[in-house]
Amino acid sequence: MKVLTVNFLTCAVKTCRTSAASFPLHFADAELEQREIGYNPTFLTNILPRLDWDAITTTALELGFSNLPAAKPDGSVETEEDQKVMRDLHTLLMETEVTEGKMVCGNCGHEYKIKEGIANFLLPNHMV
Fold first, then answer.
1. Are 30 and 1 in contact (CB under 8 A)?
2. DSSP three-state, residue 4
3. 67 vs 84: CA distance, rounded Å
4. Are 106 and 55 in contact (CB under 8 A)?
5. Whole-model pTM over 0.90
6. C-alpha pair distances (Å), 118 with each of 45, 48, 84
7. Residue 15 CB coordination number (10 Å)
8. Residue-wise pLDDT tens digits, 10-54
């Protein structure tokens, strides 16, 4: 599961739908794998407006990526620093995959297991 994906996921438990604490889901016991992918600055520039930056930085810190800026970049690659930020973002979002572990809801504590890179979002009947 690519780290980018978690920016678009929220807890599926019915009681969490209105809670701000259900987003983002937090990784726990995550096993990470880096898979090199060609750098695509156009994709990053186009996806930036869709990203919740607070959620991305929270996820990045939880996974040990402390080099993202506090403010969302504008997608510019004019300076060397801009290019470094975009490359770091590419590494986090596109090249980093969670292969095993779980995602945990900050509201209800429900755990979604991740096995072989696939998160299981099926809920038991009593939680639907």
1. no
2. helix
3. 10
4. no
5. no
6. 27, 24, 30
7. 12
8. 999 988 989 999 999 999 999 999 999 999 989 999 999 999 999
